Amino acid sequence: MHRDFETMKMLAFHRELVASRRLAHSQGLTLSIALEQILTATAGQSGLLNLLQERRQHFAKLAEIKLKKKRQAEDKYAIKLACNKIPDSVWCGWFDGSARPNPGSCSIGALLQSPDGQRWEISRSIGYGNSSYAEYHALIALLELALKQQLNSMIVFGDSRVVIDDLQSGSQKYAQGLSELRQQANELMSQIPDLQLKWIPRARNQHADRLALQATQQTVI
């Protein structure tokens, strides 16, 4: 009695399946017989039963590794979603600045949102400078707006690595030419007891970006 074809097919490697099809075609055999002959030849002295058992263990291990990687990916994605989720129980702010060209005409955009969903927007031109100058001014404008609301905690989001790294650099080297703006921003942030400054990719800062662009377009008009 020949081995179960579906079981052998499941445990065979691709090259063995190809070889069995060729053997079946050349010898006029059924695929089941041809595959059994190929696997028997592969098994050699250890025997077909031992080969099939080894293959079961091999594919079971691969499935376990695949499942582990899938779970790790799911956990990583869940953590990413949790990190990306904007909390609805705290004040949040977003800022963005642009210079067109760079350096050139600068505009800023900012959005402040309260826990109950109220929103305040900033969109204005600020003269000539580079992109970091504009980003800093956008953050400062947002902080000034936030302080008017007399809030005690806030999460601030921005897509400027230069500004956020500059403010979070501690004793490390600061960005050149931004010392006065950095000092002004630090003074404002110190007035909010619980403030978190977080970098986000530009794709997640679209509202502030649109507000800055809006100011640029109005200036051109």
From TrEMBL:
What SUPFAM superfamilies does the record point to? Ribonuclease H-like
The organism's superkingdom is given as: Bacteria
Record InterPro entries: RNaseH-like_sf, RNaseH_domain, RNaseH_sf
User: Domain RNase H type-1: where?
Assistant: 87-217
| This protein's name | Ribonuclease HI family protein
Q: Which organism is it from?
A: Undibacterium amnicola
